Amino acid sequence: MRDIVKLEEKILNEGKVLPGDVLKVDCFLNHQLDVQFLLEIGKEIAMLYKNEPVNKILTIETSGIPIAFAAAQFMNVPVVFAKKDKSGNVPDNFYSSKVVSFTRKNEYDAIVSKDFLNNCDNVLVIDDFLAKGNALNGLMDIINQSGAKLCGCVVAIEKGFQGGGDQLRQSGIRVDSLALIDSMSADSLTFRK
Ligand code: 5GP
To answer: Is residue 62 scored above 90 in pLDDT?
Structure first.
């Protein structure tokens, strides 16, 4: 069975829809990690980008890291993860971009050391969820600041009804989601095919 199908099944069987259009997948992705399953997802991501010259993966703490790590295992590249800084004082040697958090509704600076991203890099961006696109836009802003080239973005779960993914695609960015939810409520969830 393809891993993408397994992800949809896991979402249906183990996910919980919370108020505020939040999907909780704590049992395999956001709190407890189903490592074997994440490695399968990583393999799928590596397949999707096998013809691209990716030499680095960029993600954001915390929940992007396990998926990025799993993909990196099969792509043989390092992972850089943006840190979330709430101090308001970004150190000089960091790229930074302001991001509004979907789940917490607050704003933070996504920061990445200039030591780990530069204009020689071809970057694949990976995150756990795509909702309105703020987190991915922040990461792509950081890539622009560094002069690196963006190869594309992969998310495990896109909530298509929140529009972020379609906006990015319309602006010419390659966005791959392993499960694309069209609609969800407490008792029903449908995927876009
Ligand atoms: P966006 O920035 O695209 O609006 O939201 C994506 C970010 O918010 C991701 O980094 C993810 O951590 C978080 N997020 C958005 N929607 C959900 C959701 O339904 N469930 C969980 N667990 N996280 C989400």
So the answer is: yes
